[in-house]
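Re-run with default settings, no changes from the original entry. Doing this only to confirm the output is reproducible before filing.
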Amino acid sequence: MLAKVADGTDVLAVYEATKELTEYIRSGNGPAVLETKCYRWRGHFEGDQTKYRSAEEAECQRQNCCIKKLEGYLLEHGVMTKEDMDFEKKDLEVRLEQAVAFAEESPEPKAEEIFRNLYV
């Protein structure tokens, strides 16, 4: 089975690997695997204090943030301006707040509905 490994902190590298594997699969070559390597910033569960790694290591990895990397690329290549980026971030924040409000205001599902579409 064809397999690729991509830097999970590089959006464009993940895109390219995904594109290549998708074309491979759609050409009738069968399944493929894409492994993306990235750093898990938080612990294995909410109460995990991550004593198995140093604070310096975690902070160093936070500097390798995929969003920061993509923002830098977009600015460096003139795809977006800082003003465009700020506008998009504010717009996204508003839409996220609206989505959270919608979810919180929506009624709880009935017991007979909770498993609907679970395996779809």
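The longest strand covers residues 2-7. The chain has a mean pLDDT of 93.
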